[in-house]
């Protein structure tokens, strides 16, 4: 069972790095919850693959810094459609 979790964490990290994706997009793609994605990437991944963790951490920090902009764009688009 442990290797499945490790493999999933690596797959999630690679998906986010390659697609500059978000936790939400990864959760949707893999059919798991956002909480599971976050736990896999922030707690499990550093324990067995530190270099991959550091790469995905950079992408997630960038997403966090940009989220207020994305939210504003989404709100603007919501009201433009009406």
Describe the 3D structure.
This protein is mainly α and 82 residues long. The protein has one domain (2-81). It contains four helices and no strands. It has helices at 2-19, 23-30, 34-48, 50-81. Helix 1 (2-19) packs across helix 3, helix 2 crosses helix 3 (34-48) and helix 3 runs antiparallel to helix 4 (50-81). The mean pLDDT is 93.
Write the layout of secondary structure elements.
Layout: H1 2-19, H2 23-30, H3 34-48, H4 50-81
Helix pairs in contact: 1-3, 1-4, 2-3, 3-4
Summarize the structure.
This protein is mostly helical.
How many domains, as an integer? 1
Number of E strands: 0
Strand content: under 5%
Tell me, briefly, the overall form.
elongated
| Major β-sheet annotation | none
Structural class: mainly alpha
Radius of gyration, whole Å: 14 Å
- The CA-CA distance between the termini, in Å, is 49 Å
Low-confidence sequence ranges? none
Q: Tell me the series of helices and strands, N- to C-terminal.
A: HHHH
Tell me, rounded to a whole number, the average pLDDT. 93
Q: Helical residue percent?
A: over 70%
Number of helices: 4
């Amino acid at each position: 069972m442990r290797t499945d979790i490790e493999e999933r964490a690596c797959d999630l990290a690679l998906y986010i790095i390659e697609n500059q994706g978000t936790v939400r997009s990864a959760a949707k793609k893999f059919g798991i919850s956002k909480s599971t994605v976050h736990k896999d990437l922030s707690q499990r991944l550093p324990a067995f693959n530190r270099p991959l963790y550091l790469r995905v951490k950079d992408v997630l920090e960038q997403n966090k810094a940009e989220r207020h902009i994305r939210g504003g764009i989404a709100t603007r688009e919501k009201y433009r459609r009406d």
